[in-house]
Amino acid sequence: xxxxxxxxxxxxxxxxxxxxxxxxxxxxxxxxxxxxxxxxxxxxxxxxxxxxxxxxxxxxxxxxxxxxxxxxxxxxxxxxxxxxxxxxxxxxxxxxxxxxxxxxxxxxxxxxxxxxxxxxxxxxxxxxxxxxxxxxxxxxxxxxxxxxxxxxxxxxxxxxxxxxxxxxxxxxxxxxxxxxxxxxxxxxxxxxxxxxxxxxxxxxxxxxxxxxxx
Length: 214
Ligand SMILES: Nc1ncnc2c1ncn2[C@@H]1O[C@H](COP(=O)(O)OP(=O)(O)OP(=O)(O)O)[C@@H](O)[C@H]1O
Ligand SMILES: [Mg+2]
Hints:
binds adenosine-5'-triphosphate
């Protein structure tokens, strides 16, 4: 089953960013999107994750058209099924790392998984304020926060951009295990071709088109 199915998406801001972009993600699948800075990758991820409405085109989430959903249904899907790891972390700055996870725990009614904190190597810093953490630690806290929700679809924009190569690979391995275990899907935006190639499929956003390269 397709977790998400996007057809003929177009979007422009001051100029046309892209048009006729179609993309499907099945259960257990990871799909990478690469492309030059400014090509519209983050914008595409915002469309797919319902944060932005496309100028034209349609998106189905779990077999339902977004444009046909009422607000309540969309809010429930966002809360329970979609996991967003974005370029800026959007952690609550005044809170500790753990308090940030608790927010996710309460909203999604899923318990914080201690193994997750160990795997991400953040259990020693979990009581510290977000502002006292390094960029990479904040990034790992936001990954822990998203996985705490147990989403069926993960949208990740450079989720390992602040991490060293070894840690980045460990985090990707954690994502892939999660996808298999929960039959979830992931759309990963990255500049790192090596990480992109670990995904089942790879697309490049270039010349206003999304082209499959793997
Ligand atoms: N809300 C917005 N309003 C106006 N223009 C925007 C907005 N968001 C993005 N843009 C423009 O759209 C273009 C694509 O931006 P986007 O963030 O999607 O690129 P990207 O491929 O993710 O780049 P990067 O690799 O640097 O993250 C840029 O020229 C950007 O200035
Ligand atoms: Mg971007």
